[in-house]
Amino acid sequence: MPALQHPLALALSSKKDLMLDTGPRPFTVSVEGNVGSGKSTFLKHFKGLEGVNVIEEPLEKWCNVDGHNLLDKLYKDPKRWSFLFQSYIQLTRLQIHLDQTPCRVKIIERSLPNNRYCFVENALDSGAISAAEHTVLAEYYSLMERRLDIGVDLIVYLRTTPEVVFERMRQRGRAEEAAVPLDYLRRVHRSHERWLTGARPAHWPPVLCIDADQELKELLALYDKNKERITGGKV
Amino acid sequence: MPALQHPLALALSSKKDLMLDTGPRPFTVSVEGNVGSGKSTFLKHFKGLEGVNVIEEPLEKWCNVDGHNLLDKLYKDPKRWSFLFQSYIQLTRLQIHLDQTPCRVKIIERSLPNNRYCFVENALDSGAISAAEHTVLAEYYSLMERRLDIGVDLIVYLRTTPEVVFERMRQRGRAEEAAVPLDYLRRVHRSHERWLTGARPAHWPPVLCIDADQELKELLALYDKNKERITGGKV
């Protein structure tokens, strides 16, 4: 019996065609940067443009997995819960990459590669996850990258100085940011620098690096100036 | 600029085509059953047939994740390590489902759905994983099932009575099986019964149920009698 004549093989082959027939994904941009680097302001600036779908970090999901607050567990006992937390972040970011949109442009707050190359590495460095936990997360990522379309067309890197964002956060006095220590910001900064600056593999997406230490007014002008590049010439 | 003219979009579109162009997967059979139900004997019986690729459980991987023995961690402290263990089992089983083979038939020892519907459920029931950990595993499974071709064409269920396999294991006296309590076998049995017998969703693969309490001689005769069905008429 030839391979495709078997009724089950036929059924599965149509299922497969269905999976593949999702069409080209939109021009996908991820905005990356430290806590307090201005990602929300950036997203707000592009939100509402026709043809642009802006997707924020799914914080509410991380705080409510079937009634369980993973973020809370993480804060209380990082060594115990970081692997679960990183697994779930990886899954929810993957969902965002794969979610379809009728829009031509998709701008996402942070990305799956950001999680892999910054936060998972930091968790290992700080001892929050073990080497075995790191390997499992890295192998999942590698399989997803190979098998699913998690591609990004442009990374917008809001590059800041840790001391500047620390001072910025101190001044705006948001309750949820009050506990972020300067040392943590420095670690997050270093991991972004390692990931987004200097020599990078040829198949990684291009980076538009923006000096986000600047004042809001200057930044908004820069976003407008770079609008065509940021939206892939599609709006 | 139309969607596919962007050089990056073009590059990614070829990558996508490449992913999709993997051809139909082979006729895929999973052999399921309790510890001691005779899965290895079944696999050995079909191994070596032309066009058949037999894949055993990747036990050696589970015992050596970058030098770490996850199985050992699991035995020592199930509540602490079950989630990591189940995550890795899920990943390695997924890899086996997706691995390409030039063979027309692929027979695998247990499957990703088996892990999802038996072992992950058992881990929750016994308190080895928390509700939040269960949700994360289940959501990963659901995404994989939706996005990747993990289809199975036939499940061969080696159905046994827990007391029979317990006695069989006691008699053959393998060191690694000496510690398996009857209660555990009963739990594994119940979960297989729930998953493979009675009413099942229409899109789940058919089950060839074999009474594996029988003597080896009878079983081998049954396997031969069912050879065409088991190999999808392809050998």
UniProtKB/TrEMBL annotation, chains A, B:
Keywords: ATP-binding, Kinase, Nucleotide-binding, Transferase. Pfam families: dNK. ATP binds at G33, N34, V35, G36, S37, G38, K39, S40, T41, R168, M169, R170, Q171, R172. The keyword Kinase applies. GO terms for molecular function: ATP binding; deoxynucleoside kinase activity. The keyword Kinase applies. InterPro entries: DCK/DGK, Deoxyribonucleoside_kinase, DNK_dom, P-loop_NTPase. Residues 29-217 form the Deoxynucleoside kinase domain. GO terms for cellular component: mitochondrion. The active site is at E109. CDD domains: dNK. Belongs to the DCK/DGK family. This is Deoxynucleoside kinase. It comes from Amphibalanus amphitrite (Striped barnacle).
